[in-house]
Every structure is written in structure tokens, then in C-alpha cells.
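Shipment paperwork, digital attachment
Item: protein structure file
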Amino acid sequence: MLPAGIYEGEVALITGGGTGLGRAMAVEFARLGTGVAVVSRDPAHRSAGVAAVEESGAGASGRRPTFGIRSRSGLPSTPSIENSARSACW
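Attachment content:
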């Protein structure tokens, strides 16, 4: 196991972070000190992922993806991630 806080100041963008393995990874990254952005198309899943991270004592934000991964046409060339103390937004 990695020590808590080892990734302090870093940002993790977790797709599918509201359920299953994505949710578990979001919580674990938060424990390790990472700011977490939970990305999901489903608002209920986003909320559940953010709540799970916040229950662990960390901060998180939830965002709906603004591009489709099935087509490169909507994919931005450089994603914009803003990092504040313990949260990130896409």
C-alpha cells in the first residue's frame, strides 16, 4: 500500500468514477492526496462518486464529459484542468 498523501497536489481524472472500480479508484486516489474529478455521463453516478470521495474526507468535483470517446472529432486537443487545493474540474 502507498502512504496517504503521497500524491498531494496531483489531479486524477476518473472516468466512470461513480460506480464499481472507478468509484473505488476515485476514493483511493483521494486517500493518496490526489484531487479527483469524477467524470460520468449519468448525473446520479457522478453525484454518487463525488459523495463517496467526500465521505472519505477528501474533496472532489463531478463533470459530464463534453466530448464523445467513440469519435475523435469531438475530442479536444488539450483538456483544461484547473487544480485547487483538493478538487479539480473538467
